[in-house]
Amino acid sequence: MSPAEEERSLPLPERWPRASKFALSACAAAVAELVTFPLDLTKTRLQIQGEAAAGPAVPYRGMLRTAAGIAQEEGVWKLWQGATPAVYRHIVYSGVRMVTYEHLRDSVLGRAEGESFPLWKAVVGGVSAGAIGQFFASPTDLVKVQMQMEGKRKLEGKAVTVGSSQSWFRGVHHAFLKILSEGGVRGLWAGWVPNVQRAALVNMGDLTTYDTVKHFLLLNTTLVDNSVTHSVSSACSGLVAAVLGTPADVVKTRIMNQPRDKQGRGLLYKSSMDCLIQTVQGEGFMSLYKGFTPTWMRMAPWSLVFWLTYEQIRRLCGVTSF
Fold this sequence. Notes:
two-stranded antiparallel ribbon, 322 residues
């Protein structure tokens, strides 16, 4: 049998390992995103409260009251408003970050199979993978934030301001086309700097912690590669990711939600640093942790659902271990 015939006889995951891992990462992320999305919507609404926007200040509402208010005022299904671009985002983001992390870990940073991996290498790999994945996925994140605020704008009678016109988005594709027509390709990457910063910090907590904890447990305890190990690793990674990523997430959300002029420039914040300074000066340092509770509550189950789904699909498809 020739090498070409031998290669064609191999299972698809062995012939296309990176593509297979991209696909199963995207599937696992889509499941996790849909299950936990109401917490993400609640987090976004909390992060917007008190921002430097026109209009009277509204009383601060915590996580439960915010979620209940959305269900009562806008309808229960509005808790999934923006879920479609969120799934689009994770198809790109999770697929790219997982494949990039594995490539960096195994080919660039040189971790051999079954050996311990230095923490600093795991950090470098996690930060780099998160930043690269989020840069490519940033346009979908922008649309997701805009659509998550759509229900609130309609209740207040406010249309979204994009360039020279105001209107409500009629759907995901209309949102993409409107932002593109008003701000050009550059407009789709509005807020990408704090978005990439957030993703780098979150992945430093998520991928790095999950990978490090999982391999520590396998090498130093009697635990085997099963759901218990995945659950413990996921719980740890979710907490660390929420602590590291929430401040950058607040800045990212506010920059993406702000109105823009005809040139696509923000009318409230000049840059992510300006947004950070205004937020701290106007609302105090702890305002950077607005939405922390739903962020943490979402990241732990999101990470758990993602990794359990990932591991189950991996075994069914015969993809080599993460």
